[in-house]
Design a protein that fits this description.
The structure is a single chain. The chain has 488 residues and is α/β, with parallel strands linked by helices. It is built from 19 helices and 8 strands. Helix 1 runs antiparallel to helix 2, helix 10 crosses helix 11 and helix 16 packs across helix 18. Its main location: cytoplasm.
Length: 488
């Protein structure tokens, strides 16, 4: 019996240890969200999107104080190490005192791309044979790995892509490109802001086309990877083999084409490749975060090739699509219950991109499961402050006053009047409370916008509404309704 009890206690300790590790991972992710947001302000959108955003946070060694940061490729890991290591280390030391140094490396789950054997291009790239001679940009991953033999994520298919009015054009065009019959347009150019689904559609095209043509040769990579392979071939004196290999593919998928900007020799090679593949009726798909005409530094001839087919614009997901995406993601968490008001809150509040929306849902559910709490609106507001603040648009006190007056059906002048009737005072106090919650204004600044009232009056109003929200369900409902209106 003692052995059994000892085993049970050991299992509990292991289980508790796993929960602590999971909670630590959630906390590290939350810290990284804050750090990343700060770096975005310092570095600007383009540098942040290209080099900082792809970073994944690994584990923290308590003994050495070393935190691992992972990037998907050796090229990007070296670049970030050379240019941003000191800044990242300082930011983490400020955020978490136990971090003494930061180690930047390639993600262990993404093995280094194999050396290209360009001497033999006879074997079909996707025939299930030896993957040591896979196409440019292809990553051979083990059975427990992350992607298919050509680097396609098995989760990113047409079946898992949720459509709505804002992305239906891009989805239909992608499906047409992957269909058995020859498409009416080529190349297809998918234009979408970060996190709106263009990469998902690239992977889906690859999966669908490969399903219809099992022996087809597919090339999928980022523009960054294309440049790396091009430079390696140039240095090795293997440009003839490089060109021959590259132009032997049936489907060319290139992501983040905006990062080829300014590389004249790489642009020229891509131009000749496009011409060669189009002449043979091959299929080409490019994706970028801007329209072809907005690609600065691109040679005019290449720009015309990118624009000559169909440019499918994927707009930011509207609220209906955001709801559908959240509901589709919830199926993998069944039978976990997520209240409807939480889904509505996330859909209305996290509006910048789909990736953040799904990330917010995942973080909320992970925190609830690890702490044993129920998923609720209050928990969402408490735990997603970093994501919510990044998505919250700038709201003015004038807008708050106007919305509150419409909600309570009082005249706008009552916000500044001296009347003390309860029907006027309470809405005024609610507006003061919302002004403090939704704007960066100080108490004196808020007071001046409400008829020159003293800051102590604003403090009293804020504390009163906070207290009423705890005790009065009707007041809490009013405030929540107003928050949804103002943040939508």
């Amino acid at each position: 019996m003692a052995d059994k009890n000892g085993f049970a206690n050991s299992a509990k300790r292991k289980s508790g240890g796993n929960e602590m590790e999971d909670l630590e991972a959630v906390n590290l992710a939350a810290d990284w969200a804050d750090i990343s947001q700060g770096l975005r302000k310092d570095l600007g959108h383009q540098l942040h999107s290209q080099w900082i955003k792809p970073i994944q946070v690994g584990g923290l060694c308590r003994e050495t104080g070393t935190l691992d940061l992972y990037l998907p490729t050796e090229f990007s890991a070296n670049w970030v190490q050379d240019r941003f290591a000191d800044r990242l280390s300082l930011a983490w030391k400020i955020a978490r005192g136990e971090v003494r140094n930061v180690r930047i490396q390639v993600h262990p789950g993404r093995r280094k791309l194999p050396d290209i054997n360009l001497a033999d291009g006879r074997r079909p790239a996707n025939d299930g044979g030896d993957t040591s001679m896979i196409a440019i940009g292809a990553a051979h991953i083990s059975d427990a790995g992350f992607s298919s033999p050509i680097g396609l994520d098995p989760m990113l298919t047409f079946a898992s892509f949720v459509t709505g009015e804002t992305n239906v054009l891009g989805c239909n065009a992608a499906q047409r490109m992957a269909a058995t019959e020859q498409p009416q347009f080529s190349p297809l150019y998918l234009k979408a802001a970060t996190g709106q689904g263009k990469t998902h559609l690239l992977h889906a095209i690859g999966h669908s086309y490969l399903g219809a043509h099992p022996r087809a040769r597919i090339f999928y990579c980022s523009a960054e990877r294309f440049m790396v392979e091009f430079v390696q071939a140039l240095k090795a004196g293997q440009m003839i083999e490089f060109k021959s290999r590259l132009r032997s593919f049936d489907l060319l998928l290139v992501d983040d084409i905006q990062f080829i900007i300014g590389k004249a020799s790489a642009q020229e090679e891509l131009l000749y490749t496009i011409d060669a593949l189009l002449a043979e009726g091959k299929r080409l798909v490019f994706a970028a975060d801007r329209a072809p005409q907005a690609l600065d530094g691109v040679e005019p001839r290449l720009l015309s090739r990118l624009s000559m087919g169909l440019v499918a614009d994927i707009q930011a997901a509207d609220i209906e699509l955001r709801r559908k995406i959240l509901e589709s993601k919830l199926t993998k968490f069944a039978p976990l219950e997520v209240p409807e008001d939480v889904i509505e809150f996330l859909a209305r509040t996290i509006t910048r991109n789909v990736r953040e929306l799904v990330g917010g849902l995942n973080k909320l559910i992970a925190y609830a499961q690890l702490t044993g709490q129920e998923v609720s609106l209050g928990l969402a507001e408490d735990q997603l402050t970093d994501i919510l603040s990044a998505n919250r648009r700038r709201i003015t006190i004038d807008e708050i006053q106007r919305t509150v007056c419409q909600f309570y059906r009082i005249d706008r002048s009552e916000m500044s009047s001296k009347r003390r009737a309860r029907a006027v005072v309470r809405p005024r106090q609610v507006a003061m409370y919302l002004s403090k919650v939704l704007t960066p204004r100080s108490y004196p600044e808020i007071g001046r916008k409400f008829g020159g009232r003293d800051h102590s009056t604003v403090i009293h109003a804020v504390r009163l509404i906070e207290d009423l929200r705890q005790r009065d369900a009707d007041m809490d409902g009013d405030v929540r309704s107003l928050l949804r209106q103002l943040e939508s």
